Amino acid sequence: MPQAAERKALEKSLQKLNENMVTLAELSELAIRKAIDGLTRRDAEVAREVFTLDQEVYGLQLEIEHTCIDLIALHAPVARDLRTVTTSLKITTDLDRIGRYAKDLSELTLQFGGKATGERADVARIREMADRTIKMVDTAIDAFVQRDAESVRNIMEVDDAVDRMHDEIFADLVRRMEDRSLDTEVGARYILVNRYLERIADHAVNIGLRVVYMVTGDWLPRVRAADRVKRYPK
Amino acid sequence: MTRKLAAEKVSAWYGPKKAIEDISLDFEEHATTAIIGPSGCGKSTLIRCLNRLHETVPKARVEGKVLLDDKDVYADDPVTVRRRVGMVFQKANPFPTMSVYDNVAAALRLNGVRNRGKLDKIVKQSLEQAALWDEVKDYLGKPGVSLSGGQQQRLCIARALAAEPEVLLMDEPCSALDPIATAKIEDLIFDLKTDYTVVIVTHNMQQAARVADTTAFMYLGHLIEVGGTRELFERPREALTESYITGRFG
User: Fold this and answer.
1) Binary contact (B247, A76; C-beta < 8 A)
2) Whether ipTM exceeds 0.85
């Protein structure tokens, strides 16, 4: 627990942590934007840029983890300082996972190659879901940077909309594969795209909820089981 | 949880200078309450009001009530109050001319206990409770002041426990001790609350976080915030508390 004299050293480490967190968040968001861009335009060059970004995200995540451990070991932070450190530690995992999904999406871009242009999935609908997902990530990251709990309080509701979209796209892809208007291999890859986007949105929710805790100290419960029951009634 | 001790609108002065103002604070039975705050905030004054020690300072006075089992201690005999509400001070203060044994037995003898068997039993029990018995059982005749600093402080705790108090007040009990001796006292505080109600004043916030169930923060003679220790250190309600525990002042 910091005494007044130790505050300066703690402030310095917290500032470094914050700068690295902002960079990590920007890199993750850039990775997902580029991944979607590469996928939509079937651009292999852009897809490969995402691989590099993912490596940078991973490296920075490790550095942030070490900074957090040092902060806890050396300064024993409390109150908002403690919430900032623990939140950062948790959020880095979400940002890293977002970077990993961006990389996975880019791998799918390379696997699609030029082949998919004639295979009509509802690309516009998938693009719409990608835009919503990116918006969620953007909102969650902005909330973290601005220390703004209010902007993410309804993020679970936004996620519900993305989840519904995921289910509709999934059903549509299956129907198209069944009636053979969509090649099975291509359809299976779109199912993965759909799934990755939905997971990215989940990580955005995690970030949002953590930001609320960091800023206010309130835990907003994430109701997973109840959601499932609601969505899949007997 | 039951309230064992309570301050109700307690104010205290040293001559014309008001040291604490209108403090109301409950102390739960069989729990440890820590009082934290910067130097001069009045935390030691507050606990000295709880066992009527404050009034022993020349020109000092107290207003308000201190309830022990819901009865005002200021309507009772101060000696009885101090027997029920024991105290351990910042600096270990064993009686310099007395042996380890006699230090612990002193309060009992003052209260007229002469039976050697009973004295032996209570001395042993008190030293065991203070986690000191194993270290001094073969040296009970040695002077109390020949022990190490940490042992002397535990001897003072044993001395306080021998009087069979219901509440134990500890005023910065570890501030003169090294980390190992501090850890032993903290272990002890953790165990003591099974049988006693413990109130500890400390400027070491980590210590409060480790040993206390409830923590109260004082500043400039006022009680700013009181709450569960975990909550107070994780999400304090008051900006002043947050500023103090995060080291922004103090």
Assistant:
1) no
2) no
